[in-house]
Amino acid sequence: MNSDYEKRALINTDKLIWEKSKYENVFKKILAIKDNQETALIKLDNSSVLNKNSLINSVEIFVLEGIYVNEYGEFEKGTYLKLSKEDEAQVSSKNTCVIFRKTNHFSNNEQVIINTQKTNWLEGQGNLEVMPLSDQTALVKWPENERFLAHKHWGGEEIFVLSGTFMDEYGAYVKNTWLRSPHLSEHFPFVKEETIIFVKTGHI
């Protein structure tokens, strides 16, 4: 398990097998776990309840497929949620839902819910477009053949590739690839096709 935050981590999540949880029709692909913090993909099939006895201290979610349901409402593909608490006994889905989720990674009372499919992109550096989601978290859209300056990650960087292929001098990372780079790591990113990434910085 990717618990050493001082090392680079890379997973093509499409190559992982969905692991059954103890609850019916709930499956996980765990990407990293340390103490009570977890980063994972979770799949909720029909008639599933995520956890009947758990209250998460904090949760950060990006809905990848389907409709995610919790005590705050129903959220379609492309919705970002950052909640200081969530009652997992009220988490379910309509049909099949897949989410990227981080639990217990922050301790403030921040609550953010953004439907990224209905939110405008902002101009970023170079030809990039950016959609801020919360502190140090954003979607970044790379146009075809865009190259970025070589840079270091103060506090590290975490990326989940939502579409296209993200690239740097170390390799090419297709859709559904998860990357984590440690504090002061450095790379020179670029793309050949339009690519959208979910990115967090400074939290490692």
UniProtKB/TrEMBL annotation:
InterPro entries: ChrR-like_cupin_dom (IPR025979), RmlC-like_jellyroll (IPR014710), RmlC_Cupin_sf (IPR011051). CDD domains: cupin_ChrR_1. Residues 7-106, 110-203 form the ChrR-like cupin domain. It comes from the Bacteria. This is ChrR-like cupin domain-containing protein. It comes from Poseidonibacter parvus.
